[in-house]
Design a protein that fits this description.
The strands form four sheets. This protein has a six-stranded mixed β-sheet with strand order 5-6-7-3-8-9, with helices on both faces. Strands 10, 12, 14, 15, 17 and 18 form a six-stranded mixed β-sheet that branches. It is built from nine helices and 18 strands. It folds into two domains: 245 residues, Rossmann fold (3-Layer(aba) Sandwich); 127 residues, Coagulation Factor XIII, Chain A, domain 1 (Distorted Sandwich), CATH 2.70.50. With 426 residues, it is α/β, with parallel strands linked by helices. The two termini are 44 Å apart. The longest helix has 16 residues. Helix 3 packs across helix 4 and helix 3 packs across helix 5. Belongs to the ABC transporter superfamily. It comes from Candidatus Magnetaquiglobus chichijimensis. InterPro entries: AAA+_ATPase, ABC_transporter-like_ATP-bd, ABC_transporter-like_CS, ABC_transpr_TagH-like, Bact_Polysacc_Export_ATP-bd, P-loop_NTPase, Wzt_C. Keywords: ATP-binding, Nucleotide-binding, Transport. Pfam families: ABC_tran, Wzt_C.
């Protein structure tokens, strides 16, 4: 059975910057199509490639995140896949029903109620009248806008419109779902609910293409990512790997920089060196499970930092955060402040209770009071945890932290009973 639902083969799309020329080129291309002639492949005056020679495929159950700067061609790609525009070169092959969440609520009438707009918008998206009646209660329940469902949409906030638009589109049950920045609006409850729903749909066999500038959402939702830049596919691979590459591409290139400073961080601080040490003070890259660890970071404060909060996070191999180290108050009851200049910060962990595996450190820095983030640095350090003597390792469980504990068998077997049990098992 072929699980491939989307295949994009060497697709290119060009646009014209000048409106008059664009209209002229459009008429010319239409005449060429009427005469059975091929499209003009070369760039004409004022034209540019919005998408150029892009190829990738998407299988059933995959959630692919498309990331990249504004103007990279991400939305153009979705419009090509959805059939709203045609490629100038290449081919797009689709299998199954397609649903697009490129602009939520685009078909809503402001004077109609939310309930009435469900019928109109669902019909626009291709649902039959019987399907709409069958799923109406589910759509209303998912939108969760209460009594406003019977109020005119013109009185809705942008978040309420997003809720209703997503609820309608997600109940189409397509084979392929295209999602473009729909989670940029709406509250946290809606975003979490929408992401959970998309994960459920992917598990049921739907293929999803997800575009977002929120890298945390891409990281949490997507099983794979594609980095777009200037209309081209720069990289395609595991989500965390591609996000790291994208962040690196957006990071100002400073001579001697080893760590990934997310955009804006360089205005407040710059990390010069991070090292990990054992209890004897020796620099290490490998440590026994549950042994003490010292993390030392040297940085340059670009501005005076009043009692900032350094939030170090430890990521597991799958890149989820599984532990944190937060700067605590000193004996005087206040976190240290740093004047502009070079400083060294040290954290001591008496027992690093991580199970064997490979881990990565990253950090976020907040202003006093943890209200505003002023910096984020990833790929600070890598550490391999090895088992200590007699440590039990359960390799088939997705666990990373071993809690300190003491054990006692309240009703142990008698030694003779234990021997009998072992013999019976043999």
């Amino acid at each position: 059975m072929n699980d491939e639902l989307v295949r994009v083969e060497n697709v290119s799309k060009k646009f014209c910057r000048d409106l008059r020329r664009s209209l002229h080129y459009g008429i010319t291309d239409m005449m060429r199509a009427v005469r059975g002639q091929a499209r003009e492949h070369r760039l004409r005056t004022d034209e540019f490639w919005a998408i150029q020679d892009v190829s990738f495929s998407l299988k059933r159950g995959e959630i692919v995140g498309i990331i990249g700067p504004n103007g990279a061609g991400k939305t153009t790609l979705l419009r090509l896949i959805n059939g709203l525009i045609l490629p100038d070169q290449g081919q797009i092959h689709l299998r199954g029903r397609i649903g697009a969440l490129i602009q939520l609520g685009a078909g809503f009438s402001p004077i109609l109620s939310g309930r009435e707009n469900i019928f109109v918008n669902a019909a626009i998206l291709g649902m039959s009248k019987s399907e709409i009646h069958h799923r109406l209660d589910q759509i209303i329940e998912f939108a969760d806008i209460g009594e406003f469902i019977d109020s005119p949409v013109q009185s809705y906030s942008s978040g309420m419109r997003a809720r209703l638009g997503f609820a309608v589109a997600i109940h189409m049950n397509p084979d392929i779902l295209l999602v473009d920045e729909i989670l940029a609006v709406g509250d946290m409850i809606f975003r979490n609910k929408a992401m959970a729903r998309m994960q459920q749909l992917a598990q049921s066999g739907m293929a999803i293409i997800f575009i977002s500038h929120n890298l945390d959402q891409v990281d949490r939702l997507c099983t794979r990512a594609i980095f777009f830049k200037s209309g081209q596919c720069v990289a395609d691979g595991p989500t965390r790997e591609i996000i790291t590459r994208y962040v690196a591409a957006c990071t100002p290139q400073v001579k001697g920089a080893q760590y990934l400073h997310h955009p804006g961080t360089e205005q407040t601080l710059w990390v010069e060196q991070v090292s990990l040490h054992n209890d004897a003070g020796e620099a290490i890259q490998q440590l026994e499970s549950c042994a003490p660890l010292i993390l030392r970071m040297t940085f340059e404060a670009k501005v005076d930092l009043e009692a900032p909060i350094f939030f170090f996070m430890i990521e597991a191999p799958a890149r989820q955060v599984i532990a944190a180290i937060i700067t605590q108050s000193s004996d005087h009851g206040e976190r240290p402040s740093f004047l502009r200049g070079r400083h060294t910060l040290e954290a001591r962990i008496p027992h690093l209770s991580l199970l064997p595996g490979h881990y990565t450190f990253r950090a976020s820095v907040f202003k006093k009071g943890k209200v505003e983030m002023i910096g984020r640095i990833t790929q600070l350090a890598h550490l391999q945890i090895i088992p200590y003597a007699q440590q039990s390792i359960i390799s088939n469980e997705n666990v990373f932290v071993e809690l300190a504990s003491s054990w006692q068998a309240l009703d142990p077997c008698h030694p003779d009973e234990q021997r009998n049990m072992q013999q019976e098992m043999v």
